[in-house]
Structure of Anion permease:
Amino acid sequence: MELSYPLLIGLIGIALLFDFLNGLHDAANSIATVVATRVLKPHHAVLWAAFFNFIAFAVFGLHVAQTVGKGIVDAQVIDAAVIFGALIGAIFWNVLTWVLGIPSSSSHALIGGLLGAGLAKAGFDGIVWSGVLKTVAGIFVAPLTGMVFALLLVLFVAWTSLKLTPIAVDRRFRKLQLISAAAYSLGHGGNDAQKTMGIIAVLLYSQGLLGGEFHVPFWVVISCQAAIALGTLSGGWKIVHTMGSKITKLTPQQGFCAETGGAITLFIANVGGIPISSTHTITGAIVGVGAARRMSAVRWNVASSIVTAWFITLPAAGIVGALCYGATRLIAG
């Protein structure tokens, strides 16, 4: 289905709106720990995170964008109705969980919406199952990896701080947390913004505007990085509160370990082209540093409700995506 330019620009606008909401929803992932430990004031923290969100394109390749653009739904199946359904499904779930203060995955909401719309159009044959399995595996692997790295860092930091006074440790890690928060924001921008890049690029490809080979134009890269950075700058304060204080109480030392463990996980995923959830990653890392202190330090009822939302995200966004695809086709005749 060939689109008029106004419709094409409208769809790209909706994609960038999702990217903005992604940054708004996921600001907590980048700043919750640095705000909870009072290393930075909230508005300074979002400025710090937004800057590193934006420059991520200069650090990482576009491997995640390639996976989302070609590795979830067959590019031959993609059309305007599929993209619209995917975006509305993702935006619906993002707004709902943001209002409720639930730290769910914007990434999986987008992929769930894309799957739902793709299945509604072409059935199981239109899905690239290897890419889907890689994404689903990330639901389990990302938080566990973040948790393991955070636990190892807690042990390393405790060993290297044995001869320091508590005040000296606090002073050291207040400074180091600025670096860890920057690293996490860099990884977040390098993974999450690329998912929207992949969506816009495959839309352009379906309209024959990229020539014969799929690629991500530079203007798409810049637009998506700017949109997610502006969203982060707007902050998602309900989710910041949940992530920063409801799961476990954090010190600067623990905040550094959680952010660094999460950043390492995101860097690995970015290089490997794996669209993982920054929400899942930092949640696992925060749980890890809390459990390292003692198991009762983690509010497991809060953590379990977050995990439940993780499993609901893909099918919930997928159902909305499928319904929006069907409605769009009916209206279009």
Observations:
- Residues 243-247 have pLDDT under 50 and may be disordered.
- Residues 93 and 317 are 6 Å apart (CA to CA).
- The first helix runs from residue 5 to 36.
